[in-house]
Amino acid sequence: MKDFRLKITARLALPGLLLALAACGEAPSAFAERPLVGARPGHYKETEATKLARNFTVHGVDVSKYQGNVNWDAVHEGGVSFAYIKATEGGDRIDPNFVRNWRGAKAAGLPRGAYHFVYWCRPWQDNMAWFERNVPPEHDALPPVLDVEATPDSPTCRRQLEREATLHEIRAMLAEMQRYYGKKPIIYTTVDFYQSIIDGELTDYPIWIRSTKRRPSAKYGDRSWRFWQYQSDAWVRGIPTKVDRNAFYGDATDWRKFLAANGVARDEAESQ
Description:
This protein is an alpha/beta fold. The chain has a single domain, classed as Alpha-Beta Barrel (TIM Barrel). The protein has ten helices and nine strands.
């Protein structure tokens, strides 16, 4: 997002400069031999994305029922800084592990937020009513996330998404999320959906992108981003299965400011 792009000043030291270059995909990682934050033993394929992600200092995970029984204390103690937790899908599905994950992450002192996966064959009002019914408006939660993806293989929803109509629905859902939770929501999207629907639009909302092989600019151009899902096969302490890993665009100071701006308790923000 252009309004979220961090400004590089002359006072930045080398790590800050590398961070800026990394976001543009122009610099190789200076930390290629450093383990990724929270990593535990387990094989995964090294990519341009995982190498570049080492330039970032704030890393998190996103989880759903597929991650099983998460030990959130171990996740937090391993250095993970945040978690996004799947809550709902469409107008009638809730992730069976949501409540346990939501409470467990909070008890461990780990900043966490919830996300909703949009089902395009239900009215947007149904999608939002279901999310609001199941995700409490807690003041210290991270901003909610609207997960918008194409679902061409869905056995129950064969809708062909038209750009203008889809953008209208997305805007309506984002506005409702912001009204109900009091925080500007974040858009999560994949490359194909971004290129066909979002590119050049919704620039007043922060975006969370997925690019697990290449640097972000390879698929998203110069679009500024707030979170980057750079790995889908990570092994993280406290999580029994492979999990998605994400980077926050900014350093530790930027992260503390982001947390404070979104109502995370001061002692939690300072502990990151």
